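Interim report, section 4.2 (structural modelling).
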Amino acid sequence: MADSLRTIDELEVEGRRVLVRADFNVPLSRSEAGGSIEVADDTRIRAALETIAELRRRGARLVLVSHLGRPKGIDQALSMRPVADRLAELTGAPVTLAAAVTGPEVSELAERLASGEMMMLENIRYEPGETRNDPELAAALADLADVYVNDAFGTAHRAHASTEGITHRLPSAAGRLMEREVRTLQAIVEHPDRPLVAILGGAKVSDKIGVVERFLELADVLCIGGAMCFPFLAAQGHDVGASLCPEDDIKSARRALAAAAGSSCRFELAIDLSLGPAGQEGPPARDLDGIEVPKGWSGLDIGPRTSAVYAAEIAAAGTVFWNGPMGRFELEQFAAGTRAVAEAVASTPARTVVGGGETVEAMRTFGLADRVTHLSTGGGATLEFLEGRELPGVHALMNTAVSAR
Ligand code: ADP
Ligand code: MG
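Predicted structure of the assembly:
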């Protein structure tokens, strides 16, 4: 089904206005001197360059659109200005920033674009119709272009005017980044090189329980680390002390454990931990060779024996998917587990896919980001895709979807 993703190979773009939905939702910082706002990390802008360069080379007239933060109406602090400036620097070509998202002056700018030229619309979330998937906004966007390209995988799990509504009005296709994201995740779900080893950690079990249950069906080995361990350990009757372990998550964990019992997937939990005194993050770690967390202590990292087991699974894998740090890696004394997994991921011969905001951040911090087969740019979108949910922004780009041609 998903193999029929329409790509820009199928679009005629020469001399035509192409509306490109990118994910330019970058972190901003205020420069010390003049108080001007700058892009603090341009990774997401760089990620869109491949599609932008190809479309320009093919003679497209580019109208770029993205959201940035969560403005409530027009908010100059969340203008696309710094993004447009940064993109101009990266491409060495002018990027005209429109004063608004739509309107006669914006249309006029789009009309005047020559082949290979770029303009950028203002923050799409200045328009309340965006997140409501308002047909009028979709129509106004469609009026600015002849064809539509979506390269924003990170927002594909939302049916918004610029990600879904518009596809009913213009011939639509996936950009190169979107294409790579979808194909990589699809390969994990549909034809992974085995054994498929999933490493899941991080903080919010409630957000990730769907992925845990899906991997119990798909994977050969599922290793749980980070705060995710504790609801499972609590559900098995172990003491978790002051570790992060919401009551609701224990219920979800109980359900997943029942599923694990009937599954052929090997389910691994921490067998040792690194602890910190409850409520204090400064003091050094205390090692616990076991999993019964004493009162007044929190489990803040997996221990060395657990790390060794997970690293061995990763080394023997055909495919590895990793989401969620193994501990409070932001603190040096609790970074060892996450570092061990990161290093195992970097050195295994397996295909490796790493997703999640903090997890990708950890790979970068350790200087290992370029040793991963694929760093997924979507957080929620990546997890929803792996859960098997239909992403409206991706579904709309399938050949099977009803769309304007
Ligand atoms: P991602 O963004 O990669 O999907 P999450 O947002 O789920 O990951 O979780 C990341 C956060 O989880 C990190 O900030 C990390 O410090 C925290 N974390 C991991 N393990 C623990 C733990 N044992 N106790 C408290 N916090 C933890
Ligand atoms: Mg996160």
